[in-house]
Amino acid sequence: MTSDRSLPIIQFFDADIAKEENLIISGLNLSVNRGDFVYLLGRVGSGKTSIIKSIIAETPLKSGRAKVAGFSLEKIKQKEIPFLRRRIGVVFQDFQLLTDRSVYDNLRFVLLATGWTRGSDIDQAIKECLESVDMLRKSHKMPHQLSGGEQQRVAIARALLNNPEIILADEPTGNLDSETAGEIMDLLTNIHKLYEPAIIFVTHNRALMKRYPGRVLICENMSCREIEISQEIDFSQLLDIW
Predict the structure, then answer these.
(1) Are 48 and 42 in contact (CB under 8 A)?
(2) Which terminus in the chain has less CB density within 10 A, N or C?
(3) Hey, where are the domains in the chain?
């Protein structure tokens, strides 16, 4: 992916995000450039997931403005949402693979659902994405035949299928042991270097954050603010969120 890393790919302007009638995030101002790596931290219920859901237009804004991958979230029509989501890859903590079909067919399902029709193109895209996460040789396996780390590699391959400009990683290492978590983080870091998507990484793993520095945003008290860091995160500033 080649793009101008000085240009914002995600912007929120004085945005309020609510779940039903409950205000979750108030006055959000956020700018993420192409190629940024951003950690999103906060306690359960602090608004991290609400921000993620707003980015994919699952949770509408209550007020304010936001622009994601060229789409204005406050104006987006229902029929436009699938086109927005094609430009975003999402990786979940619990993998969310379809258990009744193979690795290959999990990825094929996503491509068919996002408008791909040509069989040879589908096959090529699946093979390239599985190869990029070192899972091509297991494309015939069912999810239950894979380890947790292998399932997460497949989930990352799935997120890469439409060559996304944004990857949202919602605690992708939360269910993995520390060694496997490091392997998944190495994989995401390599993808970040190769393709330069903006990555928003929700985590509570301090060790990963120290090993792979990035921008740090904290959700608390209905707001989301950035902590200024250099190469090393000052974890004394973060103690109140754990």
Answers:
(1) yes
(2) C
(3) 94-163
